[in-house]
Amino acid sequence: MAGLEGKTAIVTGASSGIGAAIAAALAEKGARVAGGARRADQLETEIALELDVTDRESCERFVEQAVEELGGLDILVNNAGIFPIFPVLAMPDEEWDRVLRTNLYGAFYCAREAGRQMAGKGGVIVNVASPHLTSTISMPRPRLASSSFHIASAQARARSSGEGVALTFTCRSLSF
Fold first, then answer.
1. Mutual orientation of helices 56-70 and 106-118 as an angle, nearest 10°?
2. In this structure, which topology does domain 8-171 adopt according to CATH?
3. Is the CA virtual torsion 94, 152, 121, 24 positive or negative?
4. In terms of pTM, does the model score above 0.85?
């Protein structure tokens, strides 16, 4: 990662794990970072904001507040996500809905609002997807569906409206 002095970034799901590591790495490279999470009290970012990615208004408020406090937006990392372990045939509908609201809708809401903020100025949106998308490891179907969105949305960047916003994805790395 090149130096990011003068850049601003927001990271969803930044209170622990991969999100916290991404936020720390961005800050280490010089970016000003606003983190968002349901557990805002556990954020260790320069700016810590409460965020419920399952709620559209919360996502819009998070991006708007982060932009106001950071003075702009160059980078969004859509990292918030859940990975419940259920056999497909036993997965309750409520769990299916929860995964899609968190992993799919949350990424869309944040990316849309960040894209609006970046339009005409440029920026980068990174959606964090599951590494299991192309593997033979069994995974719950809502996680597969939401990871497919991240990849499809990255492929759509070539057809963007010319607003200077790059959309890409990366896959989480798991160690056992």
1. 40
2. Rossmann fold (3.40.50)
3. positive
4. no
